[in-house]
Design goal:
The chain is globular. The chain has about 290 residues and is of the alpha+beta class. It has helices at about 5-20, 25-50, 65-85, 115-120, 205-235, 275-280, 285-290, and strands at about 55-60, 90-95, 105-110, 125-130, 140-150, 165-170, 185-190, 195-200, 250-255, 260-265, 270. The longest helix has 28 residues, at about 205-235. It contains seven helices and eleven strands. α1 (about 5-20) runs antiparallel to α2. The strands form two sheets. An eight-stranded mixed β-sheet has the order 2-3-1-5-4-9-10-11, with helices on both faces. A three-stranded antiparallel β-sheet has the order 6-7-8, covered by helices on one side. It folds into three domains: about 5-50; about 55-155 and about 245-290, Alpha-Beta Plaits; about 160-235, 2-Layer Sandwich (Double Stranded RNA Binding Domain). Helices cover about 35% and strands about 25% of the residues. This is Peptide chain release factor 2. Pfam families: PCRF (PF03462), RF-1 (PF00472). Belongs to the prokaryotic/mitochondrial release factor family. One of its GO terms (cellular component) is cytoplasm. Keywords: Methylation.
Length: about 290
Amino acid sequence: MKDTEHTQMRIEEIEAAMNLPDFWNNPTEAQTLIKELQELKDEADGKEKYDRNNAVITIVAGAGGDDAEDFARMLSEMYQKYAEKHGWSALILDENPNDHNGYRNVVFEIVGKEAYGELKNESGIHRLVRISPFNANGKRQTSFVLVEVSPKFDNLTEAPLNEDDLEISFARSGGAGGQNVNKRETAVRITHTPTHISVHVSSERSQQQNRDKAMALLAGKVFAFTEAQRKRELAGLAVEKTVKIEWGSQIRSYVLHPYQMVKDHRTNTEVRNIDTVLDGDIQVFIDAEK
């Protein structure tokens, strides 16, 4: 039984006990149960209170060179197609493309009801195995990409950040050249020094708009990071200081050669039709993690 189900069952047990006529016959025990109920509700809220928010997905190419950056593009398109199938929309917030139509990194927002709740367990290292289209000798290549999913906060009071923990820098946003070059430093990078998490936003026209959006993105990333740490500590697992986007840490493998299969290593869920997965049919993996 998953922790959330156990928590909900215990909440229902205590609430049922509180409705019994003899509940207050033992005031000390009653107060203890009331305290436990509040703690359980706080725990449940911390896991689920932002599930209804939009999701922000950050995809970063890791080991694998051009193949990893092409894989980043493939995953970006996969999640955007998943969003389309749900009637949701995807908005690019920041992107760093390469010269081969791939991405070094890309950030986009999935706008839809409970988007974060559905997609939050997609966070982790994804692995691709295939014959590389970038290798003249037709050799098999393994590449890795990091996917990060965080809730979109519209109101920063939901997850306030301490200004003393932030390092903020500005740069010129990229332009088309000539008279269209943006001569003002409107692009914003903010780093949260305790966790070393940073965000870069250049999509808006003004520095203040980019700063506001960067703060919202950073708040979501810090929340997702601390939640992941809390869950690992509850499970008795060591908290990782850094994430290496390479072999041995993948949550899912996409194998195109020598056979075709997508396998989620957390649940052992397997799908043989890899084309449907890359076309956005990933609900089977999402449901298996719930």
